[in-house]
Amino acid sequence: MGCINPDGTVTEAARELLRLLEGKPLTDRDVAARTLSGQPLYMIRSRLRELREAGLIEEEAGRFRITEKGRERVFLARASL
Q1: pLDDT mean by block of 10 residues, the chain; 81 residues
Q2: CB atoms inside a 10 Å sphere around CB 38
Q3: How far apart are CA 5 and CA 58, in angstroms?
Q4: Which residues contact 58 (CB under 8 A, 6 or more apart)?
Q5: Where in the chain are the domains?
Q6: Residues 6 or more apart from 56 whose CB is under 8 A from it?
Q7: Distance (Å) of CA 30 to CA 6, 20, 76, 77
Q8: Is the pTM of this model over 0.85?
Q9: Does domain 23-79 have CATH number 2.60.120?
């Protein structure tokens, strides 16, 4: 399951990760430990990679944080609920 839908919106799994990264930067293991979906680390890493490639998060020194573009996607997802 990918993070970006064909129409450019983010999936529920991606929204969960983006919401987690709205606070302080987290490692991939921190993210995996905090997800409600209980996804294995390899899936979390794959999703983080996809979100990073889409410019929604960035990585520095092994820690991930949301970008302004990612914040906009979370905001748009909340507004459409």
Answers
A1: 83 91 94 87 95 96 96 76 58
A2: 7
A3: 20
A4: 52, 64, 65, 67
A5: 23-79
A6: 10, 14, 18, 66, 67, 69, 70, 73
A7: 29, 10, 25, 23
A8: yes
A9: no
